[in-house]
Design goal:
The chain has 196 residues and is α+β, with helices and mostly antiparallel strands. 26% of the residues lie in helices and 26% in strands. Strands 6-7-8-9 form a four-stranded antiparallel beta sheet, with no helix packed on it. The protein is rod-shaped, with a radius of gyration of 44 Å. The termini are far apart. Keywords: Membrane, Transmembrane, Transmembrane helix.
């Protein structure tokens, strides 16, 4: 009862007589059960300040873990499959299957398959791309003839000026497979090829 305050006068001095506490100033009686019920629970704001961030952190970690588990099951993240993103060599244009269409002019599948593409390297000193190991366009032109169409792409972002050559007509000028060859305008080295 030393820490209590009298409800009538506010005194903090009490004495006990026959199991009942009395205020020393106004003589108000306080039975023991009432005194024990009036015990106040101390609230520590410091403990509460630590409790809230911990609760938020635990909630966030639990949410992230559950989300990851659900996504892993849904998308099977552990066992992903590599997908080939290379363009298809046969496209159906509604005229017939690509395999049924003829190759343009003197082209054959063997000639197309034998074309070596140049390897690309970046020269950090000059900031330009260097190509080596590719076949020469002039040699290819001697074998299959001149292309049906040519387009020039100006040099940009370290790449040299390129020329896109297209063969898309057969010897009798009917629609055929389209073969695209990209080569360097200065060195005539073949940089890329594709067939549709």
């Amino acid at each position: 009862m030393k820490n209590k305050e009298c409800r009538n006068c506010g005194s903090t001095q009490f004495h006990e007589k026959d199991g009942i506490w009395y205020c020393d100033y106004c003589k108000t009686p306080y039975p023991i059960p009432i005194i024990e019920e009036s015990k106040s629970v101390e609230f520590s704001p410091i403990k509460n300040k630590v409790f809230i961030p911990k609760s938020i952190a635990i909630f966030l970690l639990t949410t992230i873990s559950v989300s990851f588990f659900i996504l892993e099951k849904k998308y099977n993240l552990k066992y992903t499959e590599t997908i080939d993103t290379a363009p298809s060599t046969h496209i159906n244009l509604g005229i017939g299957e690509s395999s049924e269409r003829k190759f343009p002019r003197k082209w054959t599948q063997e000639i197309y398959d034998d074309i070596r593409i140049a390897r690309q390297k970046y020269d950090s000193k000059t900031g330009k791309y260097i190509f080596d190991g590719g076949d020469n366009y002039k040699d290819l032109k001697k074998i299959v003839g001149a292309p049906s169409n040519k387009e020039v792409q100006k040099a940009d972002y370290g790449y040299p000026e390129k020329i896109y050559a297209t063969w898309n007509k057969s010897e009798d000028n009917t629609l055929s497979k389209a073969i695209y060859v990209t080569y360097d305008a200065k060195t005539f080295m073949i940089l890329d090829k594709s067939i549709f």
